[in-house]
Design goal:
single chain, mainly alpha, 2 domains, 10 helices
């Protein structure tokens, strides 16, 4: 049988995810290529290893999320808060559609996602997204301090995304409704803090987390 031609990154990702879920990680790129009827060299045109492919998968989730948001005409008129909410809801819909693979990759790393190399591409895409959302900031009239502020804000929202991801992994509610509630409360709390608003929403978030923690024990 003739080998398949025009092997795209999208196809390689699709075949890899299916392979991992059905029979586990391939023993080699050669075996992976043989099982999917394409030349091994075609794999290396897109990825240097399975590790680089795995990083790309989570990066693609973020890229596809942002692409879907920009396809919505109303998105251009959204506030920064609405844009962030839209990202989270769309992103976790994509993760839910691929939950079996995500669980397989992340379930055993609940303690420290921030050190997971497989999330490196996702982090890059998300940080770039945050930098373009036009979040409210304080102008310190000092370029160096403003850059530190930008980095701090981006890192805090990256931590927020990881926190929501961990919650979603443990969520056993119907249609992951509790994750949706958690997203809304988390975003509200973070924006209230930025605006130095009353901390009622922060306390509300803390109560929600405490209740969920006690339920999961």
């Amino acid at each position: 049988m003739a080998k398949k031609k025009n092997i795209t990154q999208e196809k390689l990702i699709e075949w890899y995810m299916n392979t991992v879920l059905v029979s586990g990680r391939p023993q080699s790129v050669f075996a992976f290529a043989q099982n999917n009827n394409f030349e091994e060299a075609d794999f290396y045109k897109s990825f240097s290893s399975f590790e680089s492919l795995e990083k790309a998968i989570f990066q693609v989730f973020a890229k596809e999320t942002i692409h879907m948001l920009h396809k919505t005409e109303a998105y251009k008129t959204y506030s920064s808060k609405e844009k962030l909410l839209s990202f989270y809801f769309t992103f976790f819909e994509l993760l839910t559609a691929n939950r079996s693979y995500v669980l397989l990759q992340l379930k055993s790393h609940k303690m420290d996602f921030n050190k997971l190399m497989v999330l490196k591409g996702l982090r890059e895409e998300f940080i770039a997204f945050i930098e373009n959302v036009s979040l409210e900031k304080i102008d310190f009239k000092n370029e160096r301090i403003n850059k530190i502020q930008d980095k701090t804000i981006a890192e805090s929202y990256w931590f927020q995304l990881l926190m929501i991801l961990k919650f979603w992994l443990e969520d056993e509610s119907s249609n992951f409704e509790k994750t949706d509630v958690f997203i809304e409360k988390t975003i509200k709390a973070s924006f209230d803090i930025q605006q130095i608003a009353p901390i009622k929403s922060v306390v509300d978030l803390a109560k929600f987390l405490w209740k969920e923690k006690m339920t999961m024990v």
